[in-house]
Amino acid sequence: MAPNVITLLGLSFILMNSLTVLYYDPYLNEASPRWVYFSYAIGLFLYQTFDGCDGVHARRTGQSGPLGELFDHSIDAVNTSLSFFVFCSAAALGYSPKMIICQFFLLCNFYVSTWEEYHTHKLFLSEVSGPVEGILCICLSFLITGFFSSQFWHITLMNLQFGNNMIDIEVLDLFLLSLCIGIIFNIAAARENIRKYYENEKTNTLVGNNTEPFTEYDALKGLLPFFIYYISVFVLIMIDTEFVSFPLFISIGFSVAFVVGRIIVAHLTKQYFPYINFPMFIPSVQLILYLITVRMLGYDPSKITFALTWFGLGSSVGIHAMFMNEIIYEFTTFLDVWALSVKHSKYT
């Protein structure tokens, strides 16, 4: 069996979890049968297991290479959003700005990790890494929900008063806060690793097939596309909270997965860092079209947001699919390998 098939099989468990959510709890705010939450935990744990086995199997069979690295990172990027989507159902989070904010932290962690690998040429796993401790925490959360129901996450622990407003702090808030704090430390660690790399680098760094002096501050420019993209996302949902929906959530996930894929390709082929990525303009296009159709032409906001969110999803998925198809073709042709089967086994 080809290592990439193992990677895809791992993703299939997450897809089954996501389809189960869409069947039992499409609005992410209702209780599902208890067995569903246990199946979420099993599915995510199997994904983690398969994700860990594909690399081992690739090295054992002599199939490890750049295509496998691209495949693995691209699948992980998609899984980041899909797994959190399943968690939102388990915690009855609903489609809310809080959901998009938490997705921002998760995808930021993944983006920064890939950005770090591009510059240091190493994949660092921090003390609290997403692929290990992060996934196990989410698995544990599914088990907790299975035993105590989704209401567990909405138990009020304390009340904070700001002026005349009373804010309830729930178990879910503390859980999400702890995840975000861990991610912030991971981001800081990635920046520190890049700083050390360029401090210790005695020779010029090879970038874009040219030998050019490169510094930590040059590397930090690679964070701008991600944060500018998310600024446009936050502006979009501030204009109309109805944009917060399943298609927007998945569109964001595929847009970031596309960018991560391009960074990996640039890393593997020693190209310039990809600052311009078309899917990251989708929220800006949605915002402009919304302002024209709703504010200027007076169309129904609900119908426009519905159309624009699905337009964004179709665009992001389509662009990502074309990118993966082209890259897989180029890699398999150049390396003389097959993507989903073994062409040259070391045992033959």
UniProtKB/TrEMBL annotation:
Q: Which residues form the signal peptide?
A: none
- Output the InterPro entries linked to this UniProt entry: CDP-OH_P_trans, CDP-OH_PTrfase_TM_dom, CDP_ALCOHOL_P_TRANSF_CS, CHOPT
Family classification: Belongs to the CDP-alcohol phosphatidyltransferase class-I family.
Q: Which Gene3D superfamilies match?
A: 1.20.120.1760
Chief place where the protein resides: membrane
Task: Return the protein name.
Answer: Ethanolaminephosphotransferase
GO CC annotation, single? membrane
PANTHER family noted in UniProt: BB IN A BOXCAR, ISOFORM C, ETHANOLAMINEPHOSPHOTRANSFERASE
State the Gene Ontology BP annotations. Answer: phosphatidylethanolamine biosynthetic process
The record's subcellular location field reads: Membrane
What species is given as this protein's source?
Naumovozyma dairenensis (strain ATCC 10597 / BCRC 20456 / CBS 421 / NBRC 0211 / NRRL Y-12639)
Domain of life of the source: Eukaryota
Quick check: keyword Amino-acid biosynthesis in the entry? no
Which Pfam families is this protein grouped with? Answer: CDP-OH_P_transf
This protein's gene is called NDAI0B04390
